[in-house]
Amino acid sequence: MTKPTTPQPLIDRLPAVRGRYSEQVALSRTTWFQVGGPAEVMFRPADRDDLAAFLRDKPADVPVTVIGVGSNLLVRDGGVSGVTLRLLRGFADIEVAGDEIVAGAAALDANVAAKARAAGLAGLEFLCGVPGTIGGAVRMNAGAYGREVKDVLISAEFLDPDGRPHSLTAGELAFTYRRSAAPEGWICVAARLAARPGDRDEIAARMDEIRAQRGESQPLRSRTGGSTFKNPPGHKAWQLIDAAGCRGLRQGGAMVSELHCNFLINTGAASAADLEALGEEVRARVLAASGVDLEWEIRRIGVAATEAFGDGSTSGDGNGGSA
User: Fold this and answer.
1) Which of 225, 227, 232, 262 has its CA 20 to 30 A from that of 274?
2) Which domains does the chain have, with CATH numbers?
3) Quick one: which H or E segment has residue 169?
4) Is-catalytic flag, 178?
5) Are the C-beta atoms of 257 and 265 separated by less than 8 Å?
């Protein structure tokens, strides 16, 4: 009888890189929800050239999923198959170029706002109220307090799935509410943002105001994933959720925030399945009460625990924006 062959570990099939590969990385330590299964392989590229070479040389059948700091991300309990890409130090530079800011995709939105303030550049204050990184902000046209990325983006740099570089203007990205037209599988690596000269004290005061409003209205000290659902046209998601009687609703260890009911909270023992099931229950109740079908804003990746990639399944999420 022929002995069954043992599948080759994914990490042994990947090209040589200057960055770092790690196996079975606990993504629950990365996401703000602090739930979810592992990454089959995590890749932290050294820089843009390292990432481009990896994309060019990796096996075509290996899926790549991009994550940021995990602020608006739910990783399912079975984990993420293939390679989970995390851009870190080699993509976090922030430079001032006249009245513009050039930021790497891994730069924190709040750090970009702080850099602009230090340079006496106004117009980017809203970014201090947007959790996550510039790469994710570009991908989803993130916004808060009356402004969105579409209002300030000049252009963004991407690598396509074969590692080839592309530059897209704000017009080419065709931003709409919490969406961009960036092709699926393209990875944002940097962005150029427009600002204008301003008074440092006034800029700082506006940022303080935004941070204060955020602290008063959002459960910032809880294990949460930010705004759960997009605001439907003509409505505010939180008002629909509240009107449907969902404030404080629970599913296992997951709960709808009492402070801001468009936030889901891991009370300490939630699974990703609890959080996703609670979100779907909220959607069902809002649909029944108002006829409005809420759309998830939180990005959900990976597979359920019963479909863990160790059993041969795949995540099916492909390359997305970083959050």
Assistant:
1) 232
2) 17-89+306-311 (3.30.43.10), 91-215 (3.30.465.10), 227-297 (3.90.78.10)
3) strand 165-169
4) yes
5) yes
pTM, rounded to two decimals: 0.90
* Given the residues 28, 81, 227, 322, the one annotated as active site: 227
Q: Is 227 a catalytic residue?
A: yes
Q: Which of 22, 155, 178, 214 is catalytic?
A: 178
Strands (DSSP E) contained in 195-227 are 196-197, 223-224
Q: For residues 29 and 38, is the Cβ–Cβ distance under 8 A?
A: no
DSSP secondary structure, 276-306, as one string = HHHHHHHHHHHHHHHS----B-SEEESB-GG
Catalytic residue among 297, 299, 307, 315: 297
pLDDT in tens, 271-298: 999 999 999 999 999 999 999 999 999 9
**Helix, strand, or coil (residue 34):** coil
Q: Structure tokens of 275?
A: 């959080």
164 part of the active site? no
Give the integer Cα–Cα distance in Å for 196 and 200: 12
Pick the closest to residue 55 from 105, 12, 15 (CA basis). Answer: 15
pLDDT at 3: 63
